[in-house]
Amino acid sequence: RMEGQGSYTLPTGTEYRGALRDGMFHGEGELLFPNGGTYRAVWHRGVPTQGKYIFADGLEYKDKKWHYCDGYDRRFYTEICSGLKPADISQLTNLDPPQKIPEGCYDCGDGFYNPETRVIVDYKLRFLRNA
Hints:
Largest sheet: 5 strands, antiparallel
Order of helices and strands: EEEEEHEEEE
Oligomer: single chain
InterPro entries: MORN (IPR003409), Morn5 (IPR042814)
Protein name: MORN repeat-containing protein 5
Mean pLDDT: 84
Pfam family, one: MORN
Structural class: mainly beta
Subcellular location: Cell projection, Cilium, Flagellum
Keywords: Cell projection, Cilium, Flagellum, Repeat
Shape: flat
Number of helices: 1
């Protein structure tokens, strides 16, 4: 069984780095998600007892007093940090500059969907899944 400090990659591509005990996450450790997000937590027998999620852009999730993209403030996090663009320049995603969408494809959050091939590829054009 896994014991001590180490890393473990799940079939989804999510990687755990941290303390392991008796084959389980136990102690301080973090999950690194393929989308760039990180969940840092203290684990007890594979279950997080306290932790926080940090999005790929550095935004830290808070379950109370969450002021990001709520009904009163619809700005992207990059706009909150860097300010709004001039009126004639729209920011359509949190990425600035945004991803270039290949001709005839659609952005679906984790990559591009091509309706002709019915395939979704990541932003580096590597296969993710069939639609």
